[in-house]
Amino acid sequence: MKKITISDPTLRDGSHAIKHQLTVKQVSDYCAAIDKAGVPIVEVGHGNGIGASSIQVGLSRESDVKLLEAARKHLTNAKLGVHCIPGFATIKKHIKPALDIGVDIVRCACHCTEADTTRNHITFVREQGKQAFGVLMMSHMAPADVLVEEAMKMESYGAEAVIIMDSAGALLPDKVETVIGRLCDTLNVQVGYHGHNNLGMGVGNSIVAAKAGATIIDGTARCFGAGAGNTQLEILVPVLEKLGYETGIDLYRLLDAADLAEKELVQSIPRVRSISVVSGLAGVFSGFTSHVERISKQYGVDPRDVFFRLGKRGIVAGQEDMIIEEAYKLHQEKTG
Amino acid sequence: MQNKLNVAILGSGNIGTDLLIKVLRSPYLKCTWFIGRNLSSPGMRKASSLGVNISDRSIDAIIDNPTCCDLVFDATTASYHKKNAPVFKNLGIKAIDMTPSQVGEMCVPSINLKDCLASLNVNMITCGGQTAIPVAYSISRVQSGIKYIEIVSSISSRSAGPGTRANIDEYVENSESGLSQMTGCQNVKAILNLNPAIPCIDSQSSIFVSVDHPNMDVITESVATMVKQMINYVPGYELIVPPLYENGRIAAMVKVRGLGDFLPQYAGNLDIINCAAITLAEAYAKEKLG
After folding, report:
1. Residue ranges making up the domain that contains B250
2. Residue B51 sits in the same domain as residue B110
3. pTM
4. Contact A316 B173 (CB under 8 A)
5. Residue B208 touches partner A, C-beta closer than 8 Å
């Protein structure tokens, strides 16, 4: 039976859905529940990863340290993972303290064409004897050839897996199949897939990825995540099992953890709203949604126009400040 | 009688090569040596085509010929500059450090040019620092009770060479140090985004300042005055979103279009740090040559 490792970023990507306001209690409760279900990797922290709490992408309610300490305490079998974007997080200020708390896996992420910015970070994590994965974000923005080239760089730095992230929920199954297939043919390390639901493709694309050879798949409880939400974990796992993949996860306990997430974490269950469709079509990071809505309202402009203009400019995750510029320009054009 | 200051440029990447073109235009500076490691790199070939004296012997070129220059622009990387700095010091050569090494005194010409003239080693912080810190400083000068300052810079992937990419942590750390030092605010954060879009995006920075009850009229005027000063040495500097108060913070955005010297105009990030370094070097030359 083919094995799939499930990685659960509910407590990381989900932070986007509640503007990074996760509490220590929420992290503790969910970690305890998901650990019992046998999910092997749990990611925790600010939506954009450690060190990302900022005006630019949103200020966290609790520090990385507090959330990671709580998670560590409540995970017995699962490995504790963090997302880390160089340019936001540094080795000294963020990675080192995270490892000191007991983080097992650092997923070093960058925009999908900028793999060399992760070199020092991946190298450092490996030197500390911990696991490092490479993550290529916004992967709909580059062709398969480029993604393969960037993934190979990450492998050469020491990444033990490379994850293709569909940050805007813009990928369609054909491209997922091509990209994952090409990566599995080329790399000697594991290949992973992280989906979003903007165009309704979360679970579907993840299955395509598994069939194409991906062995790490990300999913979150109740889709808890940025914008339209992520691949839904409690659907993903049984569907994979039904297709003959082995995840090692206990279905009832997984469903219990998802119920707990709905009750304790989720303010409103992510769904594909009209603005999410626009974000997916525009190819703009799902996490922009709440910022686009707030700023567009302030300037009296149509958030859909803002999204399409950002997409046209090729704005990437982390460039949330450009929302202000585009909304301001639209407002100026409207009022003369 | 000598009427130009002899300068050498160490490092033949994007920064070093763009600097060279600016030095060649300067009425106060003469490039006596353009030094790298590889004679076939694009920067070396450019220098050679401009008739500049070149060497591929890196720092050894200067050690063996200490009288080749009075001032050196170090455009290598932070870790190299840490090794080079004592060499320059022992040889009595003034160093303008283009890397985020945190070795020398930090300089933003529109804020503290005069204070840096006497220092033997001056650090130009980072491109994002040169862009955003002047705005943050001009706000901090007129507004009390600032709780937090954040600067976010976006640059085109094409303009970020291997040195910049290898120094991304140092970039963040040095930008934060410079921001803290110039504004007096201890609670700061710097963020860098690389954007690969084609056509290349212009270099720009956002400045966020957390404060209750800001006096926006005074702030707007102070920022406008600073922008005028910046344009004196960085012609492509532009305020694209004037200070506005939103969601409990002041936000402002500036953009830098470059002069298109080595890389095209989108690479305003190269331009601004190099214009700042040239401004400092020229002020030093004027003082030294009388």
Report:
1. 127-267
2. yes
3. 0.94
4. no
5. yes
